[in-house]
Design brief:
This protein has about 550 residues and is an alpha/beta fold. The chain has two domains: about 45-285, Metal-dependent hydrolases (TIM Barrel, Alpha-Beta Barrel); about 345-535, no CATH class. The protein has 17 helices and 27 strands. The strands form six sheets. Strands 3-2-1-4-13-14-15-16 form an eight-stranded mixed β-sheet, with no helix packed on it. It is globular.
């Protein structure tokens, strides 16, 4: 099969008219010609780090959406489902991914549970990781979020790193803000990448230490503009990734949007495309072609590389997307899950006023990091939400056992009535809810319990739910359905008064303990700087009191 167009050769850094000849799934030849159609043929795009679960779709449905945007491969960390189902969850992702042509390279999750300060559904030990890597289905050790464990010589952490070293696979990092001697020790432990940089200075220090930097631009964290100059300084040490990509974002674009933005910002087109393909394929040893003879025929066709409007996507010599249509089916989806808790009563989330002041989480629009403040409890016998001052009640209910919920208060959500709840709550994915009154909060949580997972909004005007029957964090719906339902829920939350651009995404990260300052787990408030739980009514030493 011959395909003609203008060849974007990222290896020799030139564009020329030519013909790509495909035979038996591989590129037989790339031949230069005198003229060609006004179409551009280039290597397929690769996401260097993504949690597929964040799309709230299973891998096969994620693939249907991703190939529309020119993605031919992704490097995936199944950390989220592993916190719910352990190795069984990883096996589910691997099995489901095999139903579709998108090349999904999965890692062995290194931090399950993410911390010992919350209740997860499973544990993956160093011996588990060794076995998984020996079996060969997972290809790297996924992000080592427990950087304190690396720095302070945690035996279990080093057992996992040794398993990766013995298997000869890459080790992904997660080290926000780490610097100096501690960073050097982290890198010396064999950790080769980081996707948590938020400043150019931080990234440059990590590159100087030998790390590859993944420039991240997803639905939650957005660091592309701050880190883009790395493409000028160290183009071969940089990859592009999304990390967390929600369905409404994926419906509109994937890696192609990052490439188009960077080219529009004036960065060298060849450096940008290499960061979205070559660099990632080489680092993770992905069996994906880069538009050279003898390699798998993985490439894309666009009418304009500056806009990255994808016309066709080819994987292993088969056209998997053309003219607005994905040319494969996602197949049937097994509904694996773990939900063992029972419904709540209103009395269980009542907060008796012990007098004085309480620690309050402060949510920031568009940020994973939170702040903290201390407010007075007043004279009433119970501490309740105060919509006028935007102090709402936040509740986490463990879903793996029947234990009492954790209750605290949060500022920044802006709801004036009703409540919202979700079982997508990084990292352990317990049920988390925020609301203006106990009745609606409990109703929302119980809707999630009854559904075995999902997202919902409750108010006097009615109830809405998006069910997530796969591990309580994913659906078997296609991206268009997921995007519309997710956006409708978010809009309902905004109608109820939320000030946040993405209220459910923000809520899901209020349980992410590894990102400070103040968060909440099923065991209560958590000080992410001191890395310990703090009581609701006990002053926190790093907070200045309001008068």
């Amino acid at each position: 099969m011959n395909i003609a167009g203008k060849i974007i050769d990222v290896h020799k850094r030139r564009i020329y008219p030519g013909v790509v000849t495909v035979a038996e799934g591989r590129i037989e030849s790339v031949t230069e010609t005198e003229e060609s159609p006004e179409l551009f043929i280039m290597p397929g795009l690769v996401d260097a780090h993504v949690h597929i679960e964040s799309s709230m779709m299973v891998p096969s449905h994620f693939a249907v959406a991703a190939v529309r945007h020119g993605t031919v491969a992704v490097v995936a960390d199944p950390h989220e489902i592993a916190n719910v189902l352990g190795r069984k969850g990883v096996e589910f992702m691997l099995d489901n991914a095999e139903k579709v042509p998108l090349k999904m390279i999965f890692g062995a999750p290194s931090c399950v549970p993410a911390t010992q300060s919350e209740s997860a559904g499973a544990k993956i030990s160093a011996s588990d990781i060794r076995e998984m890597l020996q079996e060969g289905r997972v290809k790297f050790l996924a992000e080592m979020m427990n950087f304190p464990g690396v720095i302070y010589d945690d035996v279990e952490v080093y057992g996992k790193l040794e398993a990766a070293r013995s298997a000869g696979v890459p080790v992904d990092g997660h080290a926000p803000g780490l610097t100096g001697k501690e960073l050097k020790k982290y890198i010396d432990a064999g950790i080769s990448t980081d996707h948590e940089c938020t400043s150019l200075g931080e990234a440059l220090e990590k590159i100087s230490g030998g790390m590859k930097i993944l420039i991240r631009e997803g639905s939650a964290a957005k660091n592309l503009e701050a880190l883009a100059p790395l493409l000028n300084y160290y183009p071969d040490e940089v990859m592009l990734c999304t990390d967390d990509l929600h369905p409404e974002t994926l419906a509109k674009g994937h890696m192609n949007t990052l490439v188009a933005r960077l080219i529009a910002m004036g960065y060298d087109m060849f450096n940008v495309i290499r960061a979205a393909s070559v660099n990632t394929v080489r680092h993770y040893r992905i069996k994906a072609g880069l538009l050279r003879p003898g390699e798998p025929a993985d490439f894309i066709i666009t009418d304009d590389p500056a806009r990255m409007n994808i016309l066709e996507t080819w994987i292993n010599g088969e056209c998997v997307y053309r003219n607005g249509k994905t040319l494969f089916s996602p197949g049937e989806v097994e509904k694996v899950n773990k939900f063992k808790c029972t419904r709540l009563l209103q009395d269980e989330i009542r907060v008796i006023n012990e007098g004085g002041k309480i620690n309050v989480i402060v949510a920031r629009n568009g940020e994973l990091l939170t702040d903290a403040e201390v407010v007075s409890t007043g004279e009433e016998p119970f501490v309740t939400a105060e919509t006028e001052s935007d102090i709402l009640k936040i509740v986490v209910k463990e879903r793996y056992n029947d234990r009492p919920p954790a209750v605290a208060f949060i500022h920044g959500f802006g709801l004036k009535r009703g409540a919202m709840a979700t079982s997508v709550a990084h990292d352990s994915h317990n049920i988390i809810a925020v609301g203006t009154n106990d009745r609606d909060i409990v109703t929302a949580i119980n809707m999630i319990v009854d559904a075995g997972g999902g997202m919902c909004v409750v108010s006097d005007e009615g109830q809405e739910i998006l069910k997530l029957p796969v591990a309580g964090i994913m659906s078997d719906l296609p991206v268009t359905a997921m995007a519309s339902r997710y956006e409708k829920l978010s809009e309902t939350a905004r109608i109820l008064g939320s000030k946040l651009d993405a209220p459910f995404m923000t809520l899901s990260f209020m349980a992410l303990l590894v990102m400070p300052k103040l968060k909440i787990s099923d065991r209560g408030l958590f000080d992410g700087l001191a890395f310990r739980h703090i009581p609701l009514f006990v002053p926190n030493p790093y907070i200045k009191y309001k008068t």
